[in-house]
Design a protein that fits this description.
The chain is built from twelve helices and 15 strands. The chain has about 325 residues and is an alpha/beta fold. The protein has two domains: about 200 residues, Glycogen Phosphorylase B (Rossmann fold, 3-Layer(aba) Sandwich); about 120 residues, Glycogen Phosphorylase B (Rossmann fold), CATH 3.40.50. The two termini are about 35 Å apart.
């Protein structure tokens, strides 16, 4: 990208993951880094109507409703020149609709609602002629360039979401459309860069970023929930999702080497919660942790692993945890 495009400009970043997500997110890291030189507005993905009901007890849903209904936590400066924004709107849940005119109308309506909220936040912060960066969200970001009247939009492609049925239903049309419509596409893997170049020649592989500094220094402490784990510790930090991780491989490791301890740190999906891993005495599920706590866990692992299953979702993915493991000086075994 021509450097002149971003000189003296404010940056709006639409995150597909909210700022308060319980796992690490390199788009958040990017926002923090960009904010060292530019003013940044990080826009949390808006609440949709179905989620507002089905996940009504989730703390993030509760906080979004407080923003919408009471104006609490709408716009928060969390670091110098970095604001997190909760749009005061609920989007319609439309993924169940068949492709066609009605779906396109409703998706445009959602985009227009979001654009109106972003415009209000920009006006409050006195952002002038901002640059927009969209984090892999081809639904809520598809028409933002048009509705916001922004002359430069970047699409950050970091996951092949079309491998998931939910995103594939309308994404097979939406993602190619947004790739063609934006000014620049950036990716965190060469695989995704090659995919995106078929739709936009201004596609660039920019690598993967993470906060390695936090992992380079050994905190020198043992987390309380690891103190009673004796023997070799084979560890993993991150979301425990069957879509990405090979449960059978983990079972094989734990059953064949009963003298090894498998220590898994992170939130579990339903497949992991129901897996036979919970029946094994040498497998420890320690639950989700704050990002600031993770270095202490990694430094107390003897070996770090990233047991990904190979599928369309993971083949173009660059897992940031590998860099974090290496920054801590740990041996790493990955599929």
């Amino acid at each position: 990208m021509d450097k002149k495009l971003i000189q003296q400009r404010d940056i709006v970043m639409l995150g597909i993951q909210p700022w308060d997500v319980e796992i690490g997110c390199n788009f958040k890291n990017m926002a923090q880094e960009i904010a060292t030189q530019y003013r940044v507005l990080y826009v949390n993905r808006p609440l949709d109507r179905v989620t507002s009901y089905t996940q009504r007890s989730d703390i993030r849903t509760i906080n979004r409703k407080k923003s919408i209904q009471q104006g609490i936590g709408v716009l928060t400066e969390i670091e110098k020149d970095l604001w997190v924004f909760n749009p005061q709107t609920i989007l319609e849940s439309i993924n169940w609709m068949p492709p066609g005119r009605v779906y396109r109308y409703c998706n445009k309506l959602n985009n227009k609602r979001l654009a109106n909220e972003i415009r209000k936040a920009c006006e409050k912060l006195r952002f002038q002629n901002p640059l927009l960066i969209i984090d892999n969200d081809f639904y809520n970001g598809l028409y933002l360039k048009e509705f916001l009247g922004i002359d430069c939009v970047m699409y950050y492609l970091r996951d092949y979401l079309l491998s998931q049925p939910y995103f594939n239903k309308h994404g097979v049309r939406a993602e190619p459309a947004i790739l063609k419509g934006v000014d620049v596409v950036t990716t965190n893997s060469l695989y995704l860069a090659n995919y995106a170049k078929a739709y936009n020649a201004n596609t660039f592989y920019i690598g993967q970023g993470c906060e390695v500094e936090e992992f380079e220094t050994n905190p020198g402490t043992v987390p309380d929930d690891m103190k009673n784990i004796q023997g070799p510790k084979i560890g993993y930090c991150g979301a425990l999702l069957s879509l990405r991780l090979n449960i059978d491989l983990l079972l094989s490791i734990a059953t064949q080497r009963k003298d090894w301890n498998l220590v898994l740190v992170g939130p579990q999906d339903e497949d992991f919660k129901k897996s036979k891993l919970h029946d094994l005495p040498n497998v420890f599920f320690l639950g989700p942790k704050e990002p600031s706590q993770l270095p202490a866990y990694v430094h107390n692992f003897d070996v770090c692993i990233n047991p990904q299953v190979v599928n369309q979702m993971t083949i173009g993915n660059y897992p940031r945890k590998v860099d974090e493991y290496l920054a801590a000086g740990k041996p790493v075994v990955a599929t």
